[in-house]
Amino acid sequence: MSLTLLRNDFEAFFRTPFAVYPRDTPYVSPMRSDLKRYLDPRKNPLLKAGGALEALTVLRDGRPVARATAHRHPASNARHGLSRSYFGFLDAADDPEALSLLFREVETFARRHGDTEVMGPFNLTAMQQVGLVTEGFEHAPFTDMVWSPPWLPTRLEELGYSAEFPMSTFHFSPADVDRNRLLSPGAKAILESDDWTFAPIDRKRFKVRMEEARLCLNAGFDANPMFVPLSAEEFEFQAGEMMWVLDPALSSVIHYKGRPMGVVICIPDLNPFVKGAGATYGPRALWSWLKMRNRPKRAVIILYSVLPEAQGQGVNPAMLWRVVGALQQRGYVDCGGTWIADVNGASLRQLERIGGERLHRTHLFRKTLTEVEA
Q1: pLDDT averaged over every residue in the chain
Q2: Which of 297, 374, 363 has the alpha carbon at shortest distance from 156?
Q3: Among 133, 184, 208, 255, which residue carries the largest CB count within 10 Å?
Q4: What is the share, in percent, of the chain residues with pLDDT greater than 70?
């Protein structure tokens, strides 16, 4: 049986997980149109700004069995003093030979660009989907969460990659939450003060609110060891289509005397729709959308961030108090939370207060390259 490697063949790249994972696995693909624009150097701001990318697919006897992107984030390397290439969108059958070929090409890409290490998965930056599932393979992901099969961590270790930066995803049942447990003295003071107001993120004021959200995100995550501040173009590229799926009761920017100080973005979970639609718009997508509307409602907290000068004052629990109340009032039965790193003790404590249960354990995997090609 022969192996063939394809570069930048979008159709083969898109088809790979559908070819290697049974339909009853928890895997959910990005929508085909979204994946295509992520990989398009004419559209993705990361690539327009000088980031290089190759979409790699391995075929066995003409059938796709493994895929990954090999890419660079020059701004991240410059900001953090790195010489690193990344891999992302890693999906594969349990085929050690195909994975070996795939990662030889990823590492060749890195060496060709003069990099000394490879790390991932990043799909495509730290503000998108990151990590490889290492526990909780049986659980279905919410929107913006990863899922990967149980054999991949072992295969990466066999290829010389080490697990780093442990993270977890969570979920909780809004109906079971006593949200008053979130009310620290600072949070109570905020909720009782006329100086603090919540501005819902809705379609009418979407652009204004999302620009405020970007500023809060950039300031609040500035000290994160993987973060690179997002330009307005990058943020719109990643989050602009959120306008069409927002439940305005769930997402808001919190202002202090009119100035944005924090943001929480919580959206309905679209994964049941995407999975039912086969990640492609068409007649099947319409049927999947109608079915989803009759299912119990699920949501997912995509991000929350507080400006540094407001941290420790109760802003975060006040925002979470509001979100949980909205979830309860609107009948959401389950809510997920995207990855939180083990080093983020404050966010983990917030999840504990609302009875959050871990869905997945995830890690990044890194390898130092011993030789760099000229």
Answers
A1: 93
A2: 363
A3: 133
A4: 99
What is the predicted pLDDT for the residue at 224?
Answer: 84
Pick the CATH number of 3-168+363-368 from 3.40.50.2000, 3.40.630.30, 3.30.70.360, 3.30.1700.10: 3.40.630.30
Q: Is the dihedral of CA 267, 268, 272, 274 positive or negative?
A: negative
Q: Say whether pLDDT at 145 is over 60.
A: yes
As a CATH number, domain 172-360 is: 3.40.630.30
> Could you give the count of Cα atoms lying within 13 Å of 112 in the half-sphere of its Cβ?
12
- Nearest to 101, CA basis, from 140, 56, 151, 53: 56
- Of the pLDDT bands very low, low, confident and very high (cuts 50, 70, 90), residue 286 is confident
Instruction: Tell me the C-alpha distance between 150 and 148, whole Å.
Output: 7
Mean pLDDT of 163-179: 95
Please tell me the predicted confidence (pLDDT) of residue 287.
Answer: 86
Residue ranges covered by each domain of the chain: 3-168+363-368, 172-360
For residue 234, what are its two tokens? 């990058």
The DSSP symbol for 124 reads S
Give 241's DSSP letter.
Answer: G
H-only helix segments in 305-344: 315-329
Q: What are the distances in angstroms from CA 276 to CA 292, 301, 361? A: 9, 22, 25
Question: Are β-strands 132-135 and 297-306 bridged in parallel, bridged antiparallel, or unpaired?
Answer: unpaired
- What pLDDT score does 85 carry? 97
Residue 294, helix vs strand vs coil: coil
Residue 374 has pLDDT above 50, yes or no: no
Domains 3-168+363-368 and 172-360 equal at CATH topology level: yes
Helices 345-353 & 315-329, crossing angle to 10 degrees?
40
Residue type, 86: Y
Model confidence at 223: pLDDT above 90: no
Handedness of CA 267, 272, 275, 279 (dihedral sign): negative
Global pTM?
0.94
